[in-house]
């Protein structure tokens, strides 16, 4: 046992407020109980941001934006758009 240091016991691991470093990549998959490291977490966040969000119109055209950006909804002719209680309204 290291005084004021990390402890590994039958109840778990106490890192004594220290960082755990040089952690190998864990298995990131359904059902995995592996630990992941900062690099894997960063990659996952970037993948989600890059994938983004998209909408496709009846004419087959689509618009895609990274997460965090806004998709504009515009009316045409006599159709107006507005936001009503958190929902997009077209009338």
Automatic annotation (TrEMBL):
List, for all copies, the residue spans of the domain called Trimeric autotransporter adhesin YadA-like stalk. 19-56
Provide an example Pfam family for this protein. YadA_stalk
> Which Gene Ontology CC terms are recorded?
outer membrane
Q: What's the protein name?
A: Hemagluttinin protein
Species of the source: human gut metagenome
């Amino acid at each position: 046992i290291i005084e004021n240091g990390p402890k590994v016991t039958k109840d778990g691991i106490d890192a004594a407020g220290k960082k755990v470093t040089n952690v190998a990549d864990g298995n990131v998959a359904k059902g995995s109980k592996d630990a992941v490291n900062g690099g894997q977490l960063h990659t996952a966040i970037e993948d989600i941001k890059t994938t983004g969000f998209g909408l496709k119109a009846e004419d087959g055209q689509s618009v895609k934006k990274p997460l965090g950006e806004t998709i504009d909804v515009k009316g045409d002719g006599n159709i107006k758009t507005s936001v009503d209680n958190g929902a997009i309204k077209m009338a």
